Each structure stands twice: as structure tokens, then as C-alpha cells.
Amino acid sequence: MKKVYSNNNIVLVWHVKNMLEQQDIEVKVRNDRLYSIAGEIPLTECMGEVWVINELNHQTAERLVDEMELGSLPEFYSWVCHGCGEEVDGSLAVCWNCQAPLTSKARDL
Ligand SMILES: [Zn+2]
């Protein structure tokens, strides 16, 4: 496994994961489990990491991440809460409405 991306904004971490998976690159997100102890650690300090499982894909993944960062990604990527279905601003890691944390179950818009 090789790390391809890390960011304090877990929303962007999930976005990278989804984007790479759409390109058939198998990845793993690390550190997202810190949500289980939310309250102990400020969510903003939960650095998330995206790891490429097959190192042969690492270069491709890095290029895709570079393109994403240079490209058309909106400043904040909004997500849909799996708890209440509200649209949540990408700068937030928990739902403004019901406080559900962002998880992999959150749908992309
Ligand atoms: Zn919600």
C-alpha cells in the first residue's frame, strides 16, 4: 500500500477515494475511524489519508489527484446526509441538521 493523498478535510479525502474508485483503482481510507471518538478530538484534527492498495496504480492515482486539485473541484464539495437527507456544505464534517458524521454512506451529489 502507498499513500496518495492526505487532507484535514475528511470530505475531500472521501472525494478522492470515490474518484479513484471510479477509475477502478482500489484504495483505502485511513484515520476516518476517529469519528467513533468524536467529541474527544476536534474533527478538524482528524487527518484522513487515502492509500492505494496496489502500488502499480500509485502513479496513475497521483496524477488523478493532481488533476483534481488543479481542476474543476468546487472549493467545497457538498454531500448528502445519510441520516436526514439534507445537503451539507463540504466544509462541515458533520450534518448541520442532525449531527450525523460524514461516512462512506454519504452519497455524492
Ligand atoms: Zn442529517
Mean pLDDT reading: 79
> What is the CA–CA distance across the termini?
29 Å
Rg, Å, rounded:
14 Å
What's the story with the biggest beta sheet? 3 strands, antiparallel
How much of the polypeptide forms β-strand, as a percent range? 15-25%
- Which small molecules are bound? zinc ion
Write the layout of secondary structure elements.
Blueprint lengths: L1 E6 L2 H13 L4 E4 L17 E5 L5 H13 L8 E2 L6 E2 L18 E2 L1
Antiparallel strand pairs: 1-3, 2-3, 4-5, 4-6
The structure holds zinc ion.
Zinc ion binds next to loops.
Describe the structure.
- With 109 residues, this protein is of the alpha+beta class.
- The protein has one domain (2-108).
- Helix content is 24%, strand content 19%.
- It has 2 helices and 6 strands.
- It has helices at 10-22, 58-70; strands at residues 2-7, 27-30, 48-52, 79-80, 87-88, 107-108.
- The strands form 2 sheets. It has a 3-stranded antiparallel β-sheet with strand order 1-3-2, covered by helices on one side. It has a 3-stranded antiparallel β-sheet with strand order 5-4-6, with no helix packed on it.
- Strand 4 (79-80) and strand 5 (87-88) form a beta hairpin.
- The longest helix has 13 residues, at 10-22.
- The protein is elongated, with a radius of gyration of 14 Å.
- The model is unreliable at 104-109 (pLDDT under 50).
- Zinc ion is lined by residues 81, 83-84, 86, 95, 97-98, 100.
